[in-house]
Automatic annotation (TrEMBL):
The chain crosses the membrane at residues 5-24, 44-63, 68-87, 93-118. It comes from the Bacteria. This is DoxX family protein. The keyword Transmembrane helix applies. It comes from Chryseobacterium carnipullorum. Keywords: Membrane, Transmembrane, Transmembrane helix.
């Protein structure tokens, strides 16, 4: 069994659902134009929103193919940290229950990606 199989599987499903759903619903465009542009990222908000979604989408492919897993983790951790800072922090800790849209889910994802960073993978040149 490949290292961190269950963590990698669940991370890939979460990233896939998070990216594909917002791409097909058009929410990625709204997020870029109606949120990121208004908080100071104009005129790049739309491009940043798409960059995040494409990072998530390409991460899924790389995780499934067991390639560049550490790089995937290192690209996604800053995205999640910035998501905490710009979106979730003001909502507190809880995603549901004690509150809504909080940071707990992002913190869990960051810890899962950190597990991938600190797992020793064999060198592909062996």
């Amino acid at each position: 069994m490949k290292k961190n199989f269950y963590i990698r599987s669940v991370l890939s499903v979460i990233l896939l659902m998070h990216s594909v759903a917002s791409i097909f619903s058009g929410d990625v465009n709204n997020f870029g134009r109606l949120y990121l542009d208004t908080i100071g990222f104009s005129p790049f908000g739309l491009y940043l929103a798409w960059a995040v979604k494409l990072i998530h989408l390409f991460s899924v492919v790389l995780i499934w193919s067991d390639r560049y897993v550490m790089g995937v983790a290192l690209f996604n951790i800053p995205v999640l940290i910035l998501g905490i800072y710009f979106i979730h922090w003001q909502n507190g800790w809880y995603v549901v229950g004690g509150g809504t849209n909080g940071i707990e889910f992002n913190v869990l994802l960051i810890c899962c990606f950190l597990q991938l960073v600190f797992t020793e993978y064999p060198s592909p040149k062996k």
